[in-house]
Design goal:
By secondary structure, this protein is an alpha+beta fold. It is built from two helices and ten strands. Helix 1 packs antiparallel against helix 2.
Length: about 130
């Protein structure tokens, strides 16, 4: 996906986290969109959500970047990227996470991903883009 994202500098890592503004990041208040994060907001750098760190800054990308989706049926579709706990999805987490977790067992990960991407794109075109 080509998009202008955000660069999130944190105390979690020396390297910034670069992701779409709508990508979900786990905070002490639950999932929040990366573009809505504020300096000082507490994040977590581990799957157990026990090691806290903080947002230093959130800066919008000035150029279009290529972002890649990641479908991960394990660990409830959450990963640690640049030492920050994030969802593998944008905007919504629960429904896509359950879809990948269970549909991938029946359809296989690639087919479940393709069907999930089709449904998500349809949803975005019908509901979100309006």
């Amino acid at each position: 996906m080509l998009n202008k994202g955000v660069i999130v500098a944190t105390t979690c890592s020396d390297r910034p986290l670069r992701l779409t503004a709508n990508h979900l990041v786990w905070t002490e208040r639950g999932f929040r969109e990366a573009g809505a994060l504020a300096p000082g907001e507490r994040l977590f750098s581990d799957m157990a959500k026990t090691t806290a760190c903080a947002v230093k800054s959130v800066v919008a990308e000035t150029t279009t970047q290529r972002y890649f989706g990641l479908n991960c049926p394990a660990a409830d579709s959450m990963v640690v990227a640049e030492n920050v706990l994030v969802s593998t999805f944008e905007i919504m987490h629960t429904i896509p996470a359950y879809w990948i977790k269970y549909a991938s067992k029946i359809l296989g990960l690639q087919r479940a991903s393709r069907v999930g991407d089709f449904v998500a794109n349809l949803y975005y075109s019908l509901v979100v883009q309006q």
